[in-house]
Amino acid sequence: MRAAAVAAVAGLTVLALSRPAAAQPNCPQQDNQLQLNECYDKYYRALDAELNDVYRKLAARLAHDAETGALLKKAELAWIAYRDDECKFEINQSKGGSIYPMEWSNCLADKTAVHIKVLKRQLDCPEGDPTCVQ
Length: 134
Known about the structure:
It is a single chain. This protein is mainly α. The chain is built from 4 helices and no strands. The chain is elongated and about 50 Å long. The protein has helices spanning 2-18, 33-61, 66-90, 100-123. It starts with a helix and ends in an 11-residue tail after the last helix. It has a single domain (2-123), classed as Substrate Binding Domain Of Dnak, Chain:A, Domain 2, CATH 1.20.1270.180.
């Protein structure tokens, strides 16, 4: 029974590490799941800090337009709720397992990295482009 549980955890670890991601953390030679969990959490937190920085820059750019700024804030709050719920859904099967924190951080990181690109596109958008906020 114990061998089956170890094999299942190992399989989940391989699956989690092999799924496509927007980017991957640098977690070389981690000795155990706790260290992997901490490494993935650190990676997510760095991306979250970058997201907050990009969001602040975009919000500052929109400070002259209260309505658009309020829409940005509303959209960000909705995106955060969506991201969290989507990650809960995607990794629900490992809930309660030792791999869950790593999967949680990895999922948040994947979605955050993509969202950073979305917000950066707004920051880097050329003037006159109708698909961008000004």
